[in-house]
Write a structure and sequence with these properties.
heterodimer, A: alpha/beta, TIM Barrel, Rossmann fold, Immunoglobulin-like, 3 domains, seven-stranded parallel beta sheet, seven-stranded mixed beta sheet, globular, disordered N terminus, B: alpha+beta, T-fold, seven-stranded antiparallel beta sheet, 13 strands, 21% strand
Chain lengths: 466, 309
């Protein structure tokens, strides 16, 4: 059971100043603080057609200064000596970017260009109570599932879109668009959740700071600094994740034609803690697909992809082809109609499922994918984790090495975890209680179970095999 | 209970409201420790392990919730049955990816099921007259916890509050400032009806079978029909308005299992209860012996749905 709305317990943690951060602070206030004081060194300023005095001042105060520009402004900005140029890329500009970016990098070899996806959403758990003009609309739902807004699917898409760069995204705070006296201030938990999410997903974040927070930090308001010190602690917690060289552990592949849109089914896979990677149809030809047990194809496969799908199934994989209407090579194999819309073909030791319609119910579809994986192939399962998203990482092979947890309810949670593999040592750390508390592993049938005693927002588990 | 509780409360003092909400949450957590079937040390789990042919003393809350659940079983002639746990667990495993249960497995476990095999001896003794009976309070425990949370708020002089358990059970105390009641939208699988109810000191719960698989043979589901031993097949979602959350929670599952025809007959024998069945195709069936249920799409001229035939 999870509870929302209780009083938050504030934890005040002062940390040493990091030398590098995956959190880029978007600063809009005229007053700048020394970087050492703010504790985060990557500052994003808006582009004003030249290297502004503010940018110069920020450099003097110890920041690495990035400037956020559109595609058309990039060339000019690159000549101004910034630490990096952040290109904000809307969906409609992605095709143009593919052509433009190599030329830009070639013309400005010393400039660092980072591609920013601005389509993130504020991470949060949405309950059922909707406050509206003093009354409450309670939306009755049969699922008993709180809705979670997570950026995990977006990060997966970015990982495939720009393999050479850590995914970089930003979002607008939901409550800040309606300015006015009723607007509620962002809490420490809001910022910490945003930082935790990006860190846990091994992504970089351009963090928008509320104007009032920037101002009050500048005025050295103790309450604001208490808030900010907690955010800093979270940023510090994720400081070295990129250096560990861990790879995402996933055994579900999602194949899409269009990387510009996120199918809601991907959001629900993320929401149900089914680790997946996003691929393009051309990736099906790669040899390293052995790690995937289920391949979900939203793309329209060409002849080569069809042959590869058949090959994957022959070797024991389950392939789900969504909106399948064509003639495919596996259709001469044994077929079973599972329901009105789905036919299953037995191909070698695996199978191909053709779903004749789009995914009409992403929630059910995600549960179906978990069922298709089968009990022995589920990488991880959570109990009491309705509000939690977990991401597994591996070092070599398929064995999970690290699990990152994000609790969107932002209140302490006791979480039961099962992870595939036999592990002798489970160590747990959080930004509030750093490394490491040993947890008791229980091994059986090739899986390890353990209980996380308290997950507030962020937590990390290190697994050591027997 | 595997859900998220939310509480909104109005009071002159924000601090007092926060404190009261915190205490109400503590009560819910306490009850979860008693009624959870996923926690091995809960009072329910202990009872499920040890009460076969042997009376066990249980905490008062566990006794009370089982006693009330058995009343729903009697009312529905066994359609609602908390002893369904062995079959629920079997089908939950199928939903998690294990193989679909065989007929033989179902038959074997069906012999374990039967509310009349639960022996209640006041004030706090319970035994099972079966070697394999187990209880699942999933259809009533959440409502009971909501009622107890409401009691806590009342005891702390909070009079206007809304308690929501996962969106499927809502209890309204008093009303928001300047309003006569809380407006609660009900589950509408058709997205065409938008039923609503004005709740004041009452509760509404919704039950609906797990959506059919897109890639499977539609056999799984979390609500099991005790008569057949397999997941209930129904096109409806049911919302029930009642005085207490325990009643609305238990009755929503009961009325889903009974269906509209038998369900309406059951409501006729009760007071202060209303129900609405809605299918994905917008078929609507109602029974009203209590609060009125309104069509949201036509609130200019509110249409009160149905009466008991």
């Amino acid at each position: 059971m999870r509870i929302s709305g209780a009083i938050l317990v504030w934890v005040f943690v002062l940390v040493s100043i990091p030398a590098w951060s995956s959190v880029f602070v978007h600063w809009t206030s005229a007053t700048l603080l020394p970087a050492k004081e703010l504790g985060l060194y990557d500052l994003v300023l808006s582009w004003s057609d030249r290297f502004s005095p503010q940018a110069r001042a920020a450099q003097r105060l110890g920041y690495r200064v990035y400037v956020e520009v559109s595609l058309g402004e990039a060339a000019t900005a690159a000549e101004n000596g910034f630490e990096g140029i952040i290109l904000t890329i809307r969906q409609s500009e992605r095709a143009e970017l593919e052509k433009f970016l190599p030329k830009l990098r070639s013309a400005h070899p010393k400039a660092r260009f980072l591609l920013l996806n601005p389509d993130g959403k504020q991470p949060e758990m949405r309950g059922s109570l909707v406050i509206k003009r003093g009354s409450v609309l309670g939306v009755s739902s049969p699922t008993a599932q709180p809705w979670i807004d997570t950026n995990l699917a977006l990060v997966k898409i970015e990982q495939r879109s720009h393999p050479g760069q850590a995914p970089l995204y930003t979002f607008s705070w939901g409550g800040l668009s309606d300015s006015g006296p009723q607007q509620s201030a962002l809490t420490a938990a809001d910022y910490m959740l945003a930082v935790a999410e990006a860190g846990a997903f091994h992504a970089d974040l351009v963090l928008e700071l509320d104007d009032r927070l920037q101002k009050s930090l500048g005025e050295h308001d103790p309450e604001s600094w208490n808030l900010w010190n907690q955010v800093r602690a979270y940023a510090s917690f994720y400081l070295h994740t990129a250096e560990q060289g861990l790879k995402v552990a996933a055994n579900v592949a999602v194949v899409v034609d269009d990387l510009a849109t996120i199918d809601e089914a991907m959001n629900l896979l993320a929401r149900h803690n089914i680790p997946f990677e996003v691929l393009r149809p051309a990736d099906l030809n790669k040899e390293d697909l052995q790690g995937f047990d289920v391949v979900v194809v939203f793309a329209n496969p060409d002849r080569g992809a069809c042959e590869r799908i058949a090959d994957l199934a022959t070797h024991g994989k389950t392939v789900v082809l969504v909106e399948a209407h064509g003639a495919y090579p596996w259709q001469n194999h044994d077929a079973v109609r599972l329901n009105e819309h789905t036919v299953s073909y037995t191909v070698g030791t695996g199978k191909v499922l053709e779903l004749s319609q789009p995914v009409t119910d992403p929630e059910t579809f995600a549960q179906d994918i978990r069922r298709l994986l089968g009990k022995q192939n589920v990488l991880m399962s959570l109990w009491n984790g309705l509000t939690t998203v977990a991401v597994p990482y591996r070092e070599h092979g398929r064995t999970v090495k690290v699990l990152e947890f994000v609790n969107y309810a932002a209140e302490p949670l006791r979480l039961q975890v099962q992870v595939k593999g036999s592990f002798a040592s489970i160590r747990y750390e959080t930004p509030e209680h750093q490394c490491c508390e040993s947890l008791v592993p229980v091994n059986h049938n090739g899986f390890t179970e353990f209980v996380i005693p308290q997950l507030r927002i962020a937590g990390r588990v290190h697994l050591e095999a027997n | 209970m595997g859900t998220v509780f939310e509480i909104a409360a109005y009071d002159q003092s924000t601090e007092h409201a926060s404190d009261a909400i915190e205490k109400a949450f503590q009560e819910v957590v306490r009850l979860d420790d008693l009624l959870s079937d996923y926690k091995p040390d809960s009072a329910l789990s202990k009872l499920n392990r040890s009460a076969h042919y042997h009376a066990e003393r249980v905490p008062p809350d566990l006794y009370r919730v089982i006693e009330q659940a058995v009343q729903f079983s009697r009312l529905s002639d066994g359609k609602f049955d908390i002893s369904i746990a062995p079959l629920v667990n079997l089908w939950k495993a199928a939903m998690r990816g294990e193989s679909t249960p065989s007929r033989a497995q179902e038959e074997k476990l069906r012999s374990c099921v039967g509310y009349h095999k639960i022996e209640l001896t006041p004030p706090d003794l319970i035994s099972f007259r079966s070697p394999c009976l187990q209880l699942d309070l999933g259809a009533v425990g959440k409502g009971y916890a909501v009622d107890r949370a409401a009691e806590v708020l009342h005891s702390l002089r909070i009079h206007d509050a809304l308690i929501d358990a996962g969106g499927s059970t809502v209890f309204a105390m008093g009303s928001p400032p300047g309003q006569t009641a809380w407006l609660v939208h009900l589950r509408d699988p058709s997205n065409k009806i938008d039923p609503q109810v004005m709740l004041k000191d009452g509760s509404v719960s919704t039950s609906e079978q797990t959506a059919p698989s897109l890639l499977g043979n539609d056999s799984a589901g979390h609500i099991i029909d005790p008569d057949t031993g397999i997941p209930l097949k129904t096109v409806f979602a049911v919302s029930v308005v009642s005085r207490t959350a325990t009643a609305s929670d238990g009755l929503s599952t009961t009325l889903l299992l009974l269906g509209p025809t038998e369900g309406k007959a059951l409501i006729k024998s009760m007071s202060d209860v209303s129900a609405i069945w809605i299918s994905r195709e917008a078929q609507v069936e109602t029974a009203t012996a209590g609060p009125q249920i309104l069509f949201g799409r036509d609130l200019q001229t509110p249409l009160i749905l149905g009466t008991i035939p």
